[in-house]
Description:
The chain is of the alpha/beta class. Helix content is 53%, strand content 10%.
Amino acid sequence: MKTICFYFQVHQPYRLRRYRFFDIGENHNYFDDFANRSIMRKVAEKCYLPTNQLFLDLINEYGSEFKISYSISGTAIDQFEQYAPDVLESFKRLAETGCVEFISETYSHSLSALKNETEFKKQVEQHKNKIEEHFNQTPKVFRNTELIYSDAIGALVSDMGYKAMLSEGAKHILGWKSPNYVYTNAVNPRLKLLLKNFTLSDDIAFRFSNRAWEEWPLTTEKYVSWLNAIDEKEEIINLFMDYETFGEHQWAETGIFDFLKHLPHKVFSETNFEFLTPSEAAEKHQPIAPMHVPHPISWADEERDLTAWLGNDLQDEAFDKLYDLIDKVKIISNEELNRDWKYLQTSDHFYYMCTKWFSDGDVHKYFNPYDSPYEAFINFMNVLSDFTVRLEKEVMDNKNKDLLSTYPPEEIKKLISEYEQKLSELKGLVDKADENAVKAKSFKKGTKGKVVAKSAAKGKNKK
C-alpha cells in the first residue's frame, strides 16, 4: 500500500512588548504577556481544541488505521503551561492513543543550526526532555525549524541518533525527481528523508478558501481523485502544514473541519493509501537515492530558501549580534537570563524584519505585528541591548565569585582582616593629617598676629 504521512507544526513565539530606548537598563521585562495570553487563547479556541478533538474522534473511529504526527516547539508548550493547560491536556489525550507521534525540534524554534552546533544540540536535548515529560515519548524523527535543511545539518542530526528527518521537496533541489519517495542524506545515508509534497499540502493549507483558485471549492472527492492520479510507482505522500491551518488560517466557516473530518473515510474507501507516522513510513519504505542539498533550504515562500529570516541588513545585524553573546551565555547559570536567551532566539523575531515586497510580501505582512520591518529591528535591538548589559554584569559577578572561590575560607578571613587593618591604618593617617592641618592653620594664624604686633611696635619706636 501507498502511504499518507500527516505532519503538523505547532508553534507560538513569545512576542516582545514595545521596548523603548529609554527602557534599556531600567526594565528587564521583554515579553508582552497580554498579547501572548490573548493570542494563545484565541488560537486555542479556534484551532487547537476543536482540531485536537476532531482528530481524537477520528482515531476513536478508525483506531490504529488513522495516524498523525506533530512537532510542538518548546515555546508553544511553555505557553500551554501558562495560558492553555486545557490544550496541553488535549495533546496528552492524543498521545495516549498510540496513534500520534511527536517529533523532535529546537526548543525555541530557533535558527541555531545555522550558527552554532553546541547551542543547536543543547536546544534539541531540551526539547526532547520536554516531549518525554509531557507525552511519554522519546522522539525518533527530527524536524528542524521551518523545515530548514542542508547536507551538513542532516549529517549533524544523524550523528545525534535520529533515523529520519523531514524536509521540503523543493523543485530547485529535486529537479525532475518526485518528492513522493524516501531519500537519504548525502553525507550520511543512514538518515532517511521524508519530503513535503508542497502542492498537495498547500492546496489545503493556503488555497482551500481562495475563491479565485480555479479548483475552488476543494472537496474530499476532488482531493482523493488527485491522490489516485499519482503515478502508481510513487510510494508516499507527505502532507506537512502549520496546525493553525485548521480554524485560524482557514476559518471554520470555510468548511475546513468538514473536509478534514470526511477525508479519512474517502481515503480508506476509494484509494490504496494508508496513514502512517513519520517513523513508521521511514521504516517501511526504502530510500531510492541521496538528496544533495549543499545550501540550506526551507519550506517558506516561493524561493524555499532562508530569505524569510536572514539575508537583509536588518536581519543579519540582529542575528549576528545575538549570537555574538553565546560564549558569555555558556558560562552563566542565571535562570531568567537563560530563559530570555532561549526566547530571543525564536526565528519569528527575524521573520518580522523581512523586507520582501515581491511574491510573498503579503504573507509577511499578514503575520507581522509591527508596522514595518524597521520597527521590528529597532524593538529587538533595544531588547538585545538591555539583555547584553544584564549578561555582562552576570559574567563579571561570576568572575568575582570564581576569584574568591580560589581561596580557602581561612585565607579569605585573613585577607579580610588584613584589609580591615589597612583601612584602619589609612583612617588613622587621614585623621592625623586632618589634625596636623588644623594645628598648622592655627599656628600660621597665631604667628601672623605676632608678626603684625612686632612690626607695629617697631614703627612706634621709630617715631
